[in-house]
Amino acid sequence: MIRYLLIALALILPNAAQAEDHPHAPVAVALYSDNVTPHINEGVRNFESNEPVEFNDPVRIASISKLIMALVTMRLVDEGKVDLDADVSDYLGFKVRSPNFPDAKVTLAQLLSHRAGLRDKAGYIIPLGDSLQEKLADPEAWYADAPPGEAPFEYANLGSPVVATALEAATGERYDRLLERLVFEPLGVEACINWIGCSDDMVSRAVALYRHTDEPARDYPGDLPPDCSIPVAEGVECSLENYVPGTNASVFSPQGGVRIGMIDLAKIGQGLTRDGFLSERSLDLLLTVDQGGGRTKGQEFFCHYAMGMQMINRTLNRCKDNLFAEISDGIVAIGHSGEAYGLQSGLWLVDEGAGIAYFRTQAPPPVGGEDTGGFTQGERDLIKRARELLATKQTK
Question: Across residues 117-124, what is the average pLDDT?
């Protein structure tokens, strides 16, 4: 297997004006191959406590959580618990159908690759106490003009609760426990989803997310356990004691709710090609990149997409995915990006045998609005800095 030299970056890098307001914005960088070598560690976890940030302090990584969900799925494929091409209705116990195409099945492969025809127009957060089945019955949740599998690529968060719930139904295990059993524990990382199961120590080290307006967004003091950390319907108790696996895994926010430090996230990147973690067949399926959204208006950021895996920098003419513009040496990478609550993040395996895991917060929305997609200049500058650090490290 290819050995990856991964650069673990935990970056909160505000613009110049914000840096003057918050001179202790956290920055941490670690370089490693077999062993982690901390490189930079500056700033604080949040602006209330002024506690210094450490190399592996946990942060909400947003949509990189979808890549981790894909790993869980493929591990269950290897266990013989799920079939990528089976009708998810068979797992869930109710029909999952596009209203205009009642005979077309919906599969895990379609959902993971965003080709099931689902859309986020109906919303994708289904709180504890609400019904996933009712959400999927809403015509607004579906592309109207083509059946699942033939619908154009459309990046949809709603597919993640469907996948996670199907995995629960197939195994009888809660989604958070599947993550721990199949990914976190085998790879030796400390992580959790929506803070469920995280130690008190890990919660105490949470990195707060702030928007570019300085408004606290997530995981700031007062937004952490013991306060409720899952979406809950009005009048419903914030408790998973009576939760039945296979009913509504949206409560775990599988589309974006993983909390993990960058060193541990990079270990997940290493695990992709670790002997025995995935079968060769599952790894091949996971990394088989489809056309994605390259030919769909508004989806150019996801120009090439596999099952929970995004390929960037493959073609630069029509795509909005050039993360390595400041380096310009033909780098192609596969992994996943994340953006939410003022955070930008990424986990990427690079075709020259290196990898990178990073996040930054207090990031302004993309120029032109939230739906324009594409990496920001701040992210490209961050990658350039990381590359320079790596070059310096290698010459010593």
Answer: 95
User: Would the pLDDT of 10 be above 60?
Assistant: no
And the tokens for 54?
């450490």
SS3 of residue 235 by DSSP: coil
Query: HSE (CB half, 13 Å, CA atoms) of 95?
Result: 8
Residue 154 forms beta bridges with which residues?
Answer: none
Question: Is the distance from CB of 268 to CB of 69 less than 8 angstroms?
Answer: no
Upper half-sphere CA count for residue 385 (Cβ side, 13 Å): 18
φ, ψ (nearest 5 deg) of residue 170: -70, -25
DSSP H helical segments within the chain, as ranges? Answer: 16-21, 64-79, 88-92, 108-112, 132-136, 159-171, 175-179, 185-187, 200-204, 262-271, 280-287, 377-395
**Closest C-alpha to 159, from 127, 134, 194, 124:** 124
What is the pTM assigned to this prediction? 0.91
User: Which residue type, as a one-letter code, is found at position 173?
Assistant: E
For 211-256, write each residue's pLDDT tens digit: 888 889 999 999 999 999 999 999 999 999 999 999 999 999 999 9
Q: Are strands 216-218 and 258-260 parallel, antiparallel or unpaired?
A: unpaired
Compute the residue count for the chain: 396
d(C-alpha 389, C-alpha 396), whole Å: 11
3-state secondary structure of 218: strand
Residues 6+ apart with CB under 8 A from 356: 6, 7, 9, 266, 333, 346, 347, 348, 350, 383, 386
